[in-house]
Automatic annotation (TrEMBL):
Name under which the protein is recorded: Transmembrane protein 42-like isoform X1
Domain of life the protein comes from: Eukaryota
Gene of this entry: LOC106813110
Range of residues in the leader sequence: 1-20
Keyword set includes Transcription regulation: no
Amino acid sequence: MTPGLFYAVVSGMLAAMASASGKMAAASSDARWLCGAVVTPAALDCDSILLYVRGSCFLLVFLLNAVMWTVFTKALRLSPTTLSATITNLASNLFFTALTGRLLFGETLGATWFVGAGLIVTGVALIHNAAADAEREAQRKTS
């Protein structure tokens, strides 16, 4: 695996983590679960600090997205093509989002999710290939 593709996978994972943090910040029941998992062993009252947990998750969304964009930019720079970095990022984001949803939130994934994810990845690949073909054609006409 090239360094660029490694960074693309990491940026996809960071995007999935940002999404999970956003869900924790927005859904009080999910934040309550997180608070209970972290705070209850410390014998603290979860209700009194739930607002801080949700606020921390909200801030984590911005932090993770900032790091994700930094890493993705590095992936674009180090990858053989922008297509490979974009497709790898997208596929890893879908994979880690599914994994996070299953492990943290108990979500189940049906066949339609897998078909939809496959169509999204295929569509992005087709769009990038068409753009690359148009760029090569334009370069050929100018030379």
